[in-house]
Description:
Layout: E1 7-10, H1 16-21, E2 34-37, H2 47-59, E3 62-65, H3 79-91, E4 97-100, E5 103-106, E6 109-115, H4 121-138, E7 143-145, H5 159-170, E8 173-177, H6 178-188, H7 192-197, E9 204-210, E10 213-216, E11 219-221, H8 230-239, E12 248-251, H9 259-276
Helix pairs in contact: 4-5
Amino acid sequence: MNKIRGVGLGFRRDIADETIALSKESNPILKPDFVELAPENWIDMGGYWRDKLEQIAANFPISAHGLSLSIGSPDELDIPFLKKIKSFLNEFNIQIYSEHLSYSKCDNAHLYDLLPIPFTEDAVNHVIERIKQVQDILEMHLVIENVSYYTPLAPKISESEFIKEIVTRSGCKMLLDINNVYVNAFNHNYNEHNFIDNLPLNEVAYMHIAGHDKISDDLIIDTHGQPIIEPVYDLLNWSLPKLPEVPILLERDFNIPNMESLQKEIQQIKEITSKHWNKIKVNA
């Protein structure tokens, strides 16, 4: 498939057939330009779901967004797992492999959550060495995502400085998650514009945008289970002139609506991107 560009949609089993059918959508503003999947959920898959994977790969470029790398973990990297990832990426000609700047495994136990890494120089150095090791094995850039978090652990430096040091010194690329910026800025009472301005924006290679749940007047949770709200769209619109043209992924993991609702969100993202990135077409 061609290089990934434009606006994509997460490939979820709940909407697998509907997503595959979108390959026949005649109006490009209502059609995802690529799909994203979690490789852990598809590696070694056979039978019915292997057939669905092959169908989606025949109709859309694929990006991979991992869940289990645990880049900030104190445990050793899982080399056999990374080799499986590499084989999967090669098999489906996947050009983007992204992961979370977090950890999800400790003492060989999977925690089934994405936990924040302390914002310290020791953690920076630890993560940099692990990213370099991953990139050496995969023979490609790792694209690392700014994550949402609810309790920072022993911060010694700012979140933006933490991210910037890791990205610039490791040689990896960045996944800028617009909703995560909004969520963290709201929950931790900082300015989202200043935060984005302090990131290594030239190294952004991929973006995510999603909805969230407001739990109380001072807490929102990054659930990927609701429609995108206008302030998050506004933050996307504000950010794009500062960024290179990169693929943008609409995330919807839970409470998945009908495809028409998702297409409306794809349309709105494409209309925003078309204001800033001329190569993205929004007309049939």
